[in-house]
Design brief:
mainly alpha, about 65% helix, two-stranded parallel sheet
């Protein structure tokens, strides 16, 4: 037992010069220096999405791209409603076979309309994701450059923080840089 204690003591004493203490001002290679405070910023993503020209342009591109498909869908929806109203007015005077045929036709039109809506929604979601990835890439490059330029240690999304002082909010600065950046449009 004495040999184990002596060996442990010897190892601890041998390791002492290599241990770095966070508050040690004399160690230049210390992982954390007390003399330098951390510089942290927060960024409001929702505000950037709502007010940046890049996000606005992405929205306009999506609207233009899906405008025709939306119009086709709305026209088919009107046609279905019109046929449904006609069926409701005439179903009491229709022959049984004619009524069953009209019901099947309405059911098929409803299913086709649902399929079209799902297809349009899936395509829109995929394109929206592409546009958001492009926007986020632009924002990230601007935030990276700003963070390095202003020597930030950390910039966090505002929604991940429980509390942040207004003085560390960098959203407006990043928004101005986005407005000045024409290549992201």
């Amino acid at each position: 037992m004495r040999k184990l204690t002596a060996l442990t003591t010897l190892l601890v004493v041998a390791a002492l010069p290599n241990i770095s203490i966070a508050g040690d001002k004399e160690k230049k290679d210390s992982p954390v220096s007390v003399t330098k405070a951390l510089k942290i910023g927060v960024l409001d993503w929702q505000l950037l999405v709502a007010k940046s020209p890049q996000a606005e342009q992405a929205g306009k591109r999506l609207e233009k791209e899906f405008k025709e498909r939306k119009e086709v869908f709305l026209e088919k929806q009107k046609q279905l409603e019109k046929k449904h109203e006609q069926f409701q007015r005439n179903k009491d005077i229709m022959a049984e076979a004619e009524r069953v045929k009209a019901e099947r036709e309405l059911t098929k039109l409803q299913q086709d309309l649902r399929n079209l809506q799902e297809e349009n929604q899936a395509d829109y979601t995929a394109r929206h994701r592409e546009e958001m990835e492009k926007f986020l890439s632009t924002v990230k490059s601007i935030v990276d450059a700003y963070g390095k330029e202003e020597q930030f240690d950390l910039i966090l999304p505002q929604d991940t923080t429980l509390f942040s002082a207004d003085r560390i909010d960098v959203t407006n600065t990043i928004l101005e840089k986005l407005k000045a950046d024409k290549k992201g449009l």
